[in-house]
From TrEMBL:
Name used for this protein in its record: Methyltransferase domain-containing protein
Domain of life, per lineage: Bacteria
Keywords: Methyltransferase, Transferase
Keyword Lipid metabolism: no
Gene3D superfamilies: Vaccinia Virus protein VP39 (3.40.50.150)
Span of domain Methyltransferase: 95-197
Protein's UniProt keywords contain Transferase: yes
Lineage: Bacteria, Pseudomonadati, Pseudomonadota, Alphaproteobacteria, Hyphomicrobiales
Organism, as annotated: Bradyrhizobium ottawaense
């Protein structure tokens, strides 16, 4: 029999006080409830792009709501691109699983082109058709660059990937796409990513102790939110009348590592945004930041770095970042030798 308590996230959750504020079942009483992940991201509308990524015409501004985490993720991705280019590669293949509006793939393609890659093949896919339509629309400029083949498809992460074995240099699965999948599928999904990846697979998910999110809109629009860690289900009532309910799993760091460690070498696992969001002023409540906050930003950065890999902090970060290296990839030292 499947032992639910063997799942680390459930063990973590079992130590939490039980909430008595579940309220009514919105599924039972409200036929406006959206109960399908694809539907929720389909209905999120054009506003989702600016909510998730800021101004779509400024992909490197990193000044949106998730700016700090985005900058951390981008630093990792950009380093992988520059390392690959420095190793002498002139072609690169990228895959973004659960790409949403495709912003991360666009960033990578633009940067890879600027770094001098002469052949860039990039595919993003998502279960939500509206997200893919947006991604195709926004892909206009980068996909017309010479040597670039940028495509977006509607597809399910739970299915076999069409990519050949070891055909992808960089596989992304960012901002909780994995959290929407049934936990029982995760070992197969990570195995499938390992099959197609020759370089690195980079994922971010929400840890078990992260702060609440409304997923498709800003948190101040939430009237009621309940995450059920036993059923891996999140229910949200939004102030505009929308009710959304969908599969969502929050991970412990150890659990995320376990899903990938069987088929990849884990290069990095850390919490992102332990302190920054907490120190962000809220214009509805706080006065303008006092002068001298530049020094505070430096200190916050130091604190993030000092605690990012500590178990008790990782599980309470806003995001968990995992960098998994394909077992086929040359060890980093070998790359240096190859480039001389
Ligand atoms: C929070 S969004 C993140 C989007 C994108 N990765 C980013 O960082 O901007 C999560 C995405 O996962 C997608 N998703 C959820 N379940 C999926 C599945 N089974 N297959 C493919 N995509 C899925 C959703 O449609 C949504 O676009």
């Amino acid at each position: 029999m499947f032992d639910h308590d063997s799942i680390p996230a459930r063990k973590w959750a079992s130590n939490l006080p039980i909430s008595h504020t579940v309220g009514h079942s919105i599924l039972a009483v409200d036929n406006e409830t959206t109960d399908d992940v694809a539907d929720i991201y389909n209905r999120a509308g054009d506003d989702y792009v600016s909510y998730a990524d800021g101004d779509p015409s400024q992909p490197f501004a990193f000044d949106g709501m998730h700016a700090y985490a985005d900058r951390c993720v981008w630093a990792v991705l950009e380093k992988k691109l520059t390392d690959l280019r420095a190793s002498g590669a002139s072609s690169i293949r990228l895959l973004d699983a659960g790409c949403g509006p495709g912003t991360w793939l666009r960033r990578l393609v633009i940067r890879a082109h600027a770094l001098g890659f002469s052949s860039i093949t990039a595919r993003g896919f998502d279960i939500a058709e509206a997200q893919i339509q947006w991604a195709r629309l926004a892909a206009g400029n980068p996909s017309s660059l010479p040597g670039v083949n940028l495509t977006f498809d509607v597809a399910d992460l739970a299915d076999r990937l069409p990519e050949l074995d070891a055909s992808v240099d960089l596989t992304l699965c960012l901002y909780s796409a994995l959290s929407h999948l049934p936990v029982a599928c995760l070992p197969e999904i990570s195995k499938e990513m390992a099959r197609v990846t020759s370089g690195y697979c980079i994922t971010t998910v929400r840890p078990i102790g992260s702060t609440p999110t409304a997923f498709v809109d800003s948190i101040e629009k939430v009237c009621r939110l309940k995450q059920d860690h036993v059923r891996n289900r999140c229910e949200i009532d939004l102030s505009d009348g929308r009710h959304i309910a969908f599969s969502f799993h929050q991970f412990t760091a150890a659990e995320l590592r376990n899903y990938f460690a069987g088929c990849f070498d884990i290069e990095d696992l850390r919490g992102i945004d332990l302190f920054h969001s907490r120190f962000m002023p809220d214009s509805r409540w706080n006065p303008v930041s006092p002068p001298g906050d530049g020094q505070l930003a430096v200190e916050l950065e130091r604190l993030e770095e000092a605690h990012a890999s500590r178990q008790e902090f990782m599980d309470r970060a806003t995001h968990l970042l995992l960098v998994a290296r394909s077992r086929r990839a040359a060890a980093p030292t070998a790359c240096v030798v190859a480039s001389t």
